[in-house]
Amino acid sequence: MAKIQMKTPLVEMDGDEMTRILWAWIKETLIEPFVDLKTEYYDLGLKHRDETDDQVTVDSANAAKKYGVAVKCATITPNAQRVEEYGLKEMWKSPNGTIRAILDGTVFRAPILVNGVKPTVRTWKKPITIARHAYGDVYKNTETRIPGAGKAELVFTGADGQETRKTVFEFKGPGVLQGMYNLDGSITSFAHSCFRYALSIGQDLWFSTKDTISKVYDHRFKDIFAELYEKEYREAFEKAGITYFYTLIDDAVARVVRSEGGFIWACKNYDGDVMSDMIATAFGSLAMMTSVLVSPDGQFEYEAAHGTVTRHYYRYLKGEETSTNPVATIFAWSGALRKRGELDGLPELQAFADRLEKAVLDTINGGIMTKDLALLYEGEARGVSSREFLEAVQGRM
Ligand code: NAP
Ligand code: MG
Prior knowledge:
Blueprint: E1 10-14, H1 17-31, E2 39-43, H2 46-51, H3 55-67, E3 69-72, H4 80-86, H5 95-103, E4 106-111, E5 128-132, E6 142-146, E7 150-157, E8 163-171, E9 175-179, H6 184-201, E10 204-209, H7 217-240, E11 244-248, H8 249-258, E12 263-267, H9 269-283, E13 289-294, E14 300-304, H10 310-317, H11 327-344, H12 347-365, E15 368-370, H13 371-376, E16 382-384, H14 386-396
Parallel strand pairs: 1-2, 1-3, 3-14, 5-12, 10-11, 10-12, 15-16
Antiparallel strand pairs: 4-5, 4-13, 6-9, 7-8, 13-14
Bound molecules: NADP nicotinamide-adenine-dinucleotide phosphate and magnesium ion (MG).
Residues 74-77, 96, 286-287, 303, 306-311, 324-325, 372 line the site of NADP nicotinamide-adenine-dinucleotide phosphate.
């Protein structure tokens, strides 16, 4: 059988621990036998990040900018214990944070659905994707305790020295106070990423804030989305047969729970933090959650939402066979290959991505899965090792 040819390389960001082991196995069993794989390889394994003073992370993000599509393995974000374990020169920053800052992107998280794992919300039939604005608001706040009576004010001093002043509250006794901010530029990037991603997967986009209460702050988000939509995206949305709609966060929550799923829900930073945990839990398993970083210029970086599965790795090092779920990592590869195929006009590569995902889902729906899923599965299920699972998928391929 002739292998499928690629034009542009994928940016391949290798990672750590158990997911690094799965990474190599996935390539070997499910991709390289079928695709003449072209990648530009960056080793983001912690050891190599340390050796390069984390330059490799920056280089990989710049490569993603250049080529447009990257696939990333889970990586360790070092803490004090890791500094010791790996003898690190420094407590390097989170690679995902570094990459996100360089691409100025938004993260979209979506669950992978299988028949035997039922969402807690019975009406949900299709995935719900959460887009979280990962900048500012309460995560960059300044807050203080108020000891007693006094006046709290909001003061802005312009670069020209001009001052504007508003009373927040006349305190009669002790309390708390906080200030926060966001930037038009960041909100605009977020909106671009959301509109582009909706177009790229052909799903409706919902956006919600609390603009009836926050008449300036949240309203600014609403306006920026609305203006950008009218100016740059309405036509493309109508052509694609999808819609953009804005609603209040409380109305959105009610609609989401009554819905069938199958749309993107864009949220402000705090709302996205809370809602993505709610959605992930209600859909079943972190090991079945994919994640894609989309830049406002339309670059894509695909990965699994889970971490490096450290506990399994230590067992693997002792020579044990583990049953670590590779599905989200496989879907990171299929997502990246499909996008590459789309951008390079390679329908065969796109079809391969579809086939790979179908083989994974058919394997699970046929009762073969890793143990984490077998525990949740309603129906006949055989919990197998990662290796056995990958071989079963390969068999279907
Ligand atoms: P984790 O790697 O996601 O694993 C937490 C637990 O969830 C595992 O011990 C396992 O439970 C279960 N689990 C997660 N993924 C699974 C899978 N694919 N198959 C089966 N079970 C799975 O999170 P963590 O232990 O908090 O973090 C480990 C390392 O990952 C940390 O160094 C952290 O910095 C890094 N991390 C990286 C990313 C990223 O690169 N995007 C994201 C999060 C965390 P059982 O042990 O009970 O089986
Ligand atoms: Mg959270």
